[in-house]
Amino acid sequence: MSERIVVGAALLDGGRLLAARRSAPVELAGRWELPGGKVEPGETAEAALVRELREELGVDAEAGGRVPGEWPLKPPYVLHVWTARLRPGSPAPEALEDHDDLRWLGPGEIWDVDWLDQDVPAVRQTLAHLGGLDADAGEVSGA
């Protein structure tokens, strides 16, 4: 079986990163992740990211650049992260579908939530890509 891509959104607003708390499935409930979802056959990763953010959070967003790296999920899936921003006039994100809470995390708050294990290295790489991560303090610098 070939690898399937899941896109995660590093949705940014004013130097803050959006985290979404899972409500389902039961084994993931209460843990935090970058919102996103599966790339469908014939769909680009950027289009999937925009579609998933609309479906999951009710927002109109635009994809930015891909964060270098990929992170294994449950086979055959692999996570790719893209930066994203809300389009002007987009409604505020809402916890819909598989999430029961959303939180904008600023510098110094990134590690205040219980990230899904597979999202931790992706979040670290995303923060490093955006301007640096002080691994000892767990804070974003220059973002």
From TrEMBL:
Keywords attached to this Swiss-Prot or TrEMBL record, sorted alphabetically, are: DNA damage, DNA repair, DNA replication, Hydrolase, Magnesium, Metal-binding, Mutator protein
Q: Which GO terms describe its molecular function?
A: hydrolase activity
| EC numbers on record | 3.6.1.55
The answer to whether keyword Magnesium applies is yes
Matches recorded under InterPro entries = MutT-like (IPR047127), Nudix_hydrolase (IPR020476), NUDIX_hydrolase-like_dom_sf (IPR015797), NUDIX_hydrolase_CS (IPR020084), NUDIX_hydrolase_dom (IPR000086)
- Highest taxon, organism lineage: Bacteria
Provide the cofactor list for this protein.
Mg(2+)
Which CDD domains does the protein's record reference?
Answer: NUDIX_MutT_NudA_like
Pfam families xrefs: NUDIX
Q: Which SUPFAM superfamilies match?
A: Nudix
Where do the TM regions start and end?
none
Q: What family does the entry list?
A: Belongs to the Nudix hydrolase family.
| UniProt name for this protein | 8-oxo-dGTP diphosphatase
